[in-house]
Amino acid sequence: MPRMPSLLSNRLAKRVMRPAFALVEQRMERATSALQTDLDALHHAVADLRRQSYGLGLLLDRAGRDGHRMPTATQVDTLVREVRAVTGDDGERARHDVTVAYRHLVALEALGAGGLAGTVTDVCGRLTTVPLLAPPNGEVLEIGTAHGLFAAALRRMLRRGGVEARLTIVDPLDGSPTREDEVRGNLILSGGAGPADAARIERGGFDDPDVRGRIADRRYGVIVVNGSHDLAAVRDLAAPGAVVVLGDQPRPAGLTGLGRVADSVYCRAA
After folding, report:
1. What are the tens digits of pLDDT across the range 171-213?
2. What angle do CA 69, 169, 140 make, to 5 degrees?
3. Which residues pair with 141 in a beta bridge?
4. Is the pTM of this model over 0.85?
5. CA geometry: angle at 220 spanning 244 and 126, to 5°?
6. I need a surface site. Which of 13, 28, 120, 228 has the fewest CB within 10 A?
7. What is the pLDDT of residue 23?
8. Burial level of 130, CB count in 10 A (0-12/13-18/19+)?
9. How distant is the alpha carbon of residue 73 from its chain centre?
10. Cβ contacts of residue 173 below 8 Å, gap of 6+?
11. Max Cα distance, the chain (Å)
12. Where does the pLDDT of residue 35 fall: very low under 50, low under 70, confident under 90, or very high at 90 and above?
């Protein structure tokens, strides 16, 4: 059977179909041009994101502290639920205060010497939960301070709730990890124009009876315990209704557990 010639090899057919071919080519050129435009825009967007990510990483990565400061949406949602469960907040204040606490964390670590010990969720959880639990007075005792930045941040958060905190810090401050002058410099970041004794530092270990005797001149509305310490002695320094923040350790009588937020346990003193 003789082979039929290709339609595209027929001069008449090619002449008739030339406009159709031209139209197809034009449409393909437009589509290719549009695709190239989109690819160029995507390339520039990715380059911008890389630049932004690098700058953000310099501010929020783990260099010089316990961990990075970039929480996920899931972590924040979980933190808000835990704060609400411990404090009884049924509105949007918990989420709002978590956001403000995060901004304090980033700002103080950027301005201060050293960092705040702990994960971003634990630090923000403490800064949010303590004020929401409405301490009975503004006397704040921090046992073990590292660099003093948490105390500065907590004072700022309490002030937002109308409480002007007077800080007492107990720490050996023997140069590991920090020195007293660094702590005092960081405490300036707490702001405010409080009295001269708005922040006092008692150098030494909490297990030293002399240290405990010097700080026993008042009862504290907030006690933050970093590390393992004698919780019976902690309880004896707490004002009625005080908020006590602990790690995972057995509690003596007189400290009622309220629940856990991130890595910290919250108690109310009798």
Report:
1. 998 876 678 889 999 999 998 665 555 789 999 999 999 999 9
2. 85
3. 168, 223
4. no
5. 35
6. 28
7. 75
8. buried
9. 12
10. 145, 179, 180, 183, 201, 203
11. 115
12. confident
Strand segments (E) across the chain: 139-143, 166-171, 199-203, 220-225, 238-246, 255-261, 264-269
The hierarchical CATH code for the domain 73-269 is: 3.40.50.150
Q: What is the CA radius of gyration of the chain?
A: 31
Short-list 65, 211, 66, CA closest to 141: 211
Tokens encoding 120: 């971003």
> Cis omega before residue 71 (within 30°)?
no
Residue 121 has, within 13 A of its CA and on its CB side, a CA count of: 18
Rounded average pLDDT over 107-132: 93
Question: Token pair for residue 83?
Answer: 């704060």
Contact 148, 180 (CB under 8 A): no
For the segment 126-145, what is each residue's pLDDT rounded down to a tens digit?
999 999 999 999 999 999 99
Find out whether 169 and 204 touch, Cβ atoms under 8 Å: no
Q: In what order do the strands lie in the sheet with 166-171?
A: 199-203, 166-171, 139-143, 220-225, 238-246, 264-269, 255-261
Helix count and strand count (H, E) for the chain: 8, 7
**Percent of the chain scored above 90 by pLDDT?**
57
148, two tokens: 């003093």
